[in-house]
Amino acid sequence: MPSYQARYQAHTNIALVKYWGKRNANLILPVTPSLSLTLEAFYTQTQVEFKPDWQEDRFVLNHQLQDEEATARISQFVDHFRRQADIGYGVQVTSQNFVPTAAGLASSASAYAALACACNEALNLNLSQRKLSIIARQGSGSASRSLYGGFVEWVAGEGDQSETSYSQPFAPADWDLAMVVIVVNHKAKKFSSRWAMDHTIKTSPFYSQWPDQVARDLEAIKPAILQKDLKAIGEIAEHNAMAMHALALSAKPSICYMQGESLAAIDQVQKLRQDGFLAYYTMDAGPNVKVLCPYSQAEAIRQRLSRIFPLDQLIISRPGPGPSRLEVDA
Ligand code: PMV
Fold first, then answer.
1. Atom 6 (ligand 1): residue with closest C-alpha?
2. What span, in angstroms and rounded, lies between the C-alpha atoms of 49 and 59?
3. Measured from the CA of 244, which atom of ligand 1 is nearest?
4. 45-94: per-residue pLDDT in tens?
5. Omega before 253 cis (within 30°)?
């Protein structure tokens, strides 16, 4: 009996101009474009194996067999590839996250990107990177950006046309750049980004201003990236992130991802700047704070942050690559 196997690693990404809101929830089409930086230190490794005589799918995450609900999500995603290959084989998906799962470090981004690449390879589909980013997007929006390394743009696209919303590389990030991730909390986040975006669109009185905010921020951040102007990039990213959190806060009832420690981290980053460091914060759908800075200052910044956070909660990452193929585990 033949089996079709492959194993891939994909890295997570952190948006500098955020995606917050879908215009089509089924297809995960975003209201706005977004732009991210892929990170080296956080990634998912995923192996898939398809077998003609398997009727059911199995999903093992971090060495634990997952329940029906989690497996159903994976099955639905893998269906994109089964349809392309015109097969009905069952799949075993074995995944390991080198990311604190669901702590706002976008484990779903690296997870769906790695799964998309592994399915493509195992079934010999030879889909383009663009096509993989379109499929990954339908697992989790931000996953579309994890198909590439460095700075990546996710194009919003047109209307309800799925094929027009994909990610593409914007610029390499092979310069003096890093993120110091402050892991405020390993525990699962309180509100999924999926629900929270929808709730924000429906109830925030300010949501109508968000597309213009994103357009302005993208227009300003692109030349700043090309000029490697970290001060300008940082100021735009910080403001964009806080505008996104302001939207969430203005939803009814309010969504607050920040915890006391997040605010303490923000305060420290502001003090670091007063002391001459180039350090700027961003936050996603969880309490963790990520500090964009030069790689050459990252260790000094980490030491300063260790006055209020344990060192093992402070992780330095350089910019990361796109997905890579790994040897299949026997
Ligand atoms: O891709 P999702 O559904 O996990 O949403 C990601 C949302 C943010 O991380 C807050 C922003 C972004 O652009 O990654």
1. 142
2. 11
3. 10
4. 999 999 999 999 999 999 999 999 999 999 999 999 999 999 999 999 99
5. yes
Ligand 1 atom with least separation from CA of 285: 10
Query: For residue 108, which atom of ligand 1 is closest to its CA?
Result: 4
Residue with tokens 């460091």: 277
CA dist 228 and 317 (Å) reads 18
- Give the model's pLDDT for residue 188: 54
- Side-chain-side CA neighbours of 325 within 13 Å: the count stands at 7
Tell me which amino acid residue 54 is: W
122 lines ligand 1 (CB under 6 A): no
For the chain, the first-to-last Cα distance in angstroms comes to 16
- 12 Cβ below 6 A of ligand 1: no
